[in-house]
Amino acid sequence: MAERVVVLGAGYAGLAAAKRAARRLRGTDARVTLVNVSDRFVERVRLHQLAAGQVLADLPLRGLLDGTGVELVVAGVTGLDLGARVVRLDTVPYEVGYDVLVYALGSGADLDAVPGAAEHAFTLAVAGEAVRLRSRLTEARTVAVVGGGLTGIEAAAEFKEAHPQLEVRLICAGPVGDGLSATARRHLHRAFRRLGVTVHEHTPVAEVGPDGLFLEDGREAPADTVVWAAGFRVAGLAAASGLAVDGQDRMLVDATLRSLSHPGVFGIGDAANAQAAGGRSRMSCQTGLPMGLQAGDAVAGLVTGRDLRPARIRHLWQNISLGRRDGVTQFTRADDSPLGAVLTGWASARHKEAVIRGTVWRLRHPGPCGPGA
Ligand SMILES: Cc1cc2nc3c(=O)[nH]c(=O)nc-3n(C[C@H](O)[C@H](O)[C@H](O)COP(=O)(O)OP(=O)(O)OC[C@H]3O[C@@H](n4cnc5c(N)ncnc54)[C@H](O)[C@@H]3O)c2cc1C
């Protein structure tokens, strides 16, 4: 019987995996099916731009899959039966069977972090939320962006540049841009001063209310709009199905990206903890896409009876946009620790734009070059 390869999630990791596997399995009778809740590829790394009012490219998945032989099923995954090798869906065909499964369902906002965030805060984790925030920002007066990591920094800068009349506050529990070099952090502060974003470091948030934030030190920070950008969380589907996961519900995978508990299942992208494959496995498309390509190769290897090669997860930089004309590119070691080298200003903004465009190009043409090839 033909082998059935099923990939769950058509983000950076899953789309790359499905296309690479199909390419490697051309000429065999294996079938590759990609399941995704929408029929569009979402450039998640641009969702702060979407919320700020910019128009993003429309990327239908059928167009990106054209000529690959990958079958697209547009449906939400509701459960996995690992014993019966069946994926349960919320719409027709309601279930799909598999012989090899690739789990790439990504991540969402961590809205359980403090009380009130789920009720009152906006997020940037999915396209629908970014669109909801976009209309809110046209009438907002004061926006509190919570989170001093990459997403919070990019959001605060983008919103202030697009809506200069807005009062934008960036609130973080630790220093802004923690983990970046001193040079990179200095540039962040310069950019926020230039734009007029107020930065509140070492200011942990205790609760989100309808009119703003309650801080841990007892003060209040009024805001008519709160954007929660303090970390991502993985859905509990893998854990609920019995797959081995870490404390954040990310699937634990070995050096070849196969589940530690169920070797017929691969885990990639934000949804997987790939420390065994080297690197810190930070949630990023920078590592998600190569993981997808490497999983595509490994899946094909498994189906055709070849030995699986260990994956290599490596970081190169942290690329942070500060609006459309400024940015910080922090070059890193493979383990994501910062080097002294930093690119700033227009050069960094151009570099980031080129990387994002290059990422979509690589998704259109996922082989034969690139990791795993
Ligand atoms: C505003 C913002 C800016 C960012 N900037 C950067 C950056 O500059 N550089 C960087 O490297 N990373 C950045 N990231 C992080 C990056 O976007 C993620 O790490 C990346 O998207 C992970 O890829 P993935 O394929 O694992 O998951 P995703 O891209 O999230 O894809 C998951 C896919 O699964 C689908 N899905 C989810 N649940 C279900 C379900 N139950 N059923 C069916 N389908 C489902 C989703 O619709 C989606 O298509 C940013 C993220 C955000 C939000």
UniProtKB/TrEMBL annotation:
One example of a Gene Ontology biological process annotation: aerobic electron transport chain
Cofactors: FAD
Protein source organism: Planomonospora parontospora
Residue stretches making up the FAD/NAD(P)-binding domain: 4-279
Name of the protein in its database record: Oxidoreductase
Keywords, ordered alphabetically: FAD, Flavoprotein, Oxidoreductase
Domain of life, source organism: Bacteria
Family, as annotated: Belongs to the NADH dehydrogenase family.
Gene Ontology molecular functions: NAD(P)H dehydrogenase (quinone) activity
Family annotation (Gene3D superfamilies): 3.50.50.100
Keyword Oxidoreductase: yes
